[in-house]
Amino acid sequence: MALALEDYAFVGDAHAAALIGRDGSVDWLCLPRFDSAAVFAALLDTPAAGRWLLAPASAGMSSRWRYRGDSLVLETDWETAVGHVRVVDFMPEKGEASDLVRIVEGVSGTVEMRTELIVRFGDGALEPWVRRLPDGRHLFLSGPDALYLDTPVEVQSAGHATTATFTVRAGQRVPFVLTYQTSYRRLLTRLVPDRAQDATEAWWAQWMGRCTYSGPHAEAVRRSLVVLKGLTYAPTGGIVAAPTTSLPEQLGGGRNWDYRYCWLRDATITLLALLEGGFTREAAEWRSWLLRAVAGDPADLQIMYGIAGDRRLTERTVPWLSGYQGATPVRIGNAAVGQRQLDVYGEVIDALHQARAAGVHTAEPRDDAFQHLLGDDPTAVWDLQRALLDFLETGWSQPDSGMWEMRGPARDFTASKVMAWVAVDRCLQSAEQFSLAAPLDRWRALRGTIRDDVLRHGVDSSRGCFTQSYGSPFMDASLLNIALVGFLPPDDPRIVATVDAVTADLRTDAGLLQRYDPRASKDGLAGTEGAFLACTFWLAECQALLGRTADATATFERLLDLRSDLGLLSEEYDTTAGRLVGNFPQAFSHVPLVTTAAALGRARAGEVQHPKRAGVRS
Predict the structure, then answer these.
(1) CATH number given to 5-183
(2) Which of 174, 186, 497, 590 reaches 20 to 30 Å from 566, CA-CA?
(3) What are phi and psi of 179, to 5 degrees?
(4) Three-class secondary structure of residue 496 per DSSP
(5) Overall pTM surpassing 0.70 (yes/no)
(6) Residues in Cβ contact with 282 at an 8 Å cutoff, skipping those fewer than 6 apart
(7) pLDDT at 374
(8) Backbone dihedral region of 333: left (phi > 0), alpha (psi from -120 to 50 degrees) or beta?
(9) pLDDT of 615 strictly over 70
(10) DSSP 8-state assignment for residue 258
């Protein structure tokens, strides 16, 4: 059975990612991209669905593990009765192929090791043809897919597995390299493992050397930025929500979704998190991905896209996988791609406004048609923003599915209407600050109309707070964003009442927030879910905004305590089982960790309002 999420590490090369257990087993790996079919799918089934074990023959869970500095180079140690051994795992910066490198180091004594490699292409469905090549490498082949295992260890292939036992003495280094390439390409030059490790560590050190963050909780912020870099698809700049699919939001439940895509709801805070860390190049790459993905008819704007800007993410179930610890179904693709969510218009326009205000234009030049078309021309991006707003001028009043992708009936979600207001407000700010052509009077009137509509229909008169949707008495953590985007001043009684009502209605005994009450909200799904970590980060930021700095610090530090010992967070937390749940690691948890830490720093310095997300009052 798969381990608890806290017992998995994450390594990647900004193209793909692997999850490696504390027991030394690689239980999840999709190649050659994050959203490709898995070659190791034991995370969602049993070892027979594909995994790669490399560990002492007599040991189970490792005694300790850690990342080397600010990197995704993993060290896992076992201290046995006869010696101490270490396995170093990493994925080098991708060249012509994707590689997973595992190096066994003898630290003391003599330790017997074992390895078991089970390759299954097609998300665990396809057993490959296995052959030993004349140069000693082992080939695993199925249609267009090929994996090559390169190691000095004598391995044997029998039945469904490739196995070996060997001994490691103090001072020895025994390498294993697993390389993916399409089967019809020529065989590539062999990777030199030691040289690749040095280059990988140097690459991470050089990258993190650009970090300028100097606020509180720097260690947690730096680790979260490393995770975000690892979740970035380097060719396009898109950042996946997570490298996994179908890790359940409720242990044993059916709320299991594919998160290997890029969500527009994350656009602004992702951009701001990268800027908080000083990574303007990555912010520019994210902006470029955003522009490419949303180009086209504004009426066709989707809530998510593939890592290359792909639009078709058809959802299907995979019946041959039994699910993470038995949670079914296992899903590939995401049907929520077809939903209407009005908040994404506000997110896109806000992100482009924040990028313009921060001086983010294009990244280091790419030699592609998009960069040749846009270059640093501000009017090209402005034309896109205006087109999106033209659609929203009439579309803002339509009901939608809300930012939580509810599969129940569409309704007038208050947070969606507020994000429509954000779209208009940020376009006005851009036009006024950068002297861009715009129908200012018409937009000011529209902004006022949306604001009046929200205040008339989105506020519960008896409690004086905003509610989940028009006419609904229920609370929703998305309402916290009303304070963070500057819709009203932070000391407005309706803002204060909303923060207090969300806290009273949705906070668990563990001090964490649910997104909403699944039963009361009629989200169209069976079962329930864990506490949503991003929402609790929003609560901490709202508390800081209201001057409740001690409460904000306590909330934030409670969240830090939930990180795995490697500093990783999933999407949610099961407060009953005391476990991380949902897809892992989750960008939508690590991004607000960065922005909330920065907000706490500003609050402690006496700054009241976030300088970048402040809106224009109307």
Answers:
(1) 2.70.98.40
(2) 174
(3) -120, 130
(4) helix
(5) yes
(6) 228, 229, 232, 237, 274, 363
(7) 55
(8) left
(9) no
(10) B
